[in-house]
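Problem: given the chain below (304 residues), write out its structure.
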Amino acid sequence: MNAAARPEHYRISEALLPMWWSNWRANWPRVARMNGVRRWFGMFKGRAVPAVVANAGPSLESILPELNERQGEFLVIAVDAALDRCLNFGVVPDLTVTCDPQAHTAWFFENYRPHKDLVALCPYQDPDLVSLFEPDDMALYTEDVSADPDNPAWTGFWREVEARYFHRARHYFGALAPGGTVGWAAMMLATVMGADPVIFAGLDLSFPLDEKRPEHETVTETRDMHGRAVATCGAYMQSLAAYRMWFERWSETRYINATGAGLLGEQKGLRIMDFARVCEYHAGPCVDYAFQLRKRLKRVARSE
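Solution.
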């Protein structure tokens, strides 16, 4: 396969590989014996716990006022770029998920408050971001190497991590299937926790045509679920394809898109629903989910 024919995320993986290794080595002494998201796997299964995954799309603010009124009636998992936007509307996420290795990701946590914000992150992220958090506020995760077996840089990195750091055994951090975006990681975490339904807010996977984007992104004009002209990028298109394939084969967890905009329309395994109706039919009793998550994170003593 020539370079031009390779999928864009293969080329991105190759470009990020040195950063992944540099970040991992810098973080490892601090995170080696910390807790992992595996402690949360299955904790809500069978309990009908509704989870809202707050993505950072332009439509997010449309549901935040009502989500604020329903605080505690949903497990709220925010992506990093949505954290401050949630807080500005009085919505305090139970958990924030982050995944990008670049240094700018730390900007999303400028207002981090020790022992109030719980975060799930990957050890290949920027050391300045990882150093922000107190040990009790972090849960680590890795990525499932079987999910994208044809991506040589990505699979090579994780296989070498397993061999060098985890002695070829699945580590206790807990692995999530990758899908190209932090929103996917948050959705996967809600799924493996056993949340049902999993409700998307701000999952536009698109942005206004005139929005300035990073130079490395390949921007494409497309149409959203209502036929309006919007723009998207390669990473979002990769994630969109991953979402569609996932919904096609998943039957146990209900997924609801309450975004009201964007590219992901109704299909097998996914319903489109206004957030007011989501609240009417799926809001649960008021629960301190952040406390429950922390209770599961029993502190693991770090080695010398």
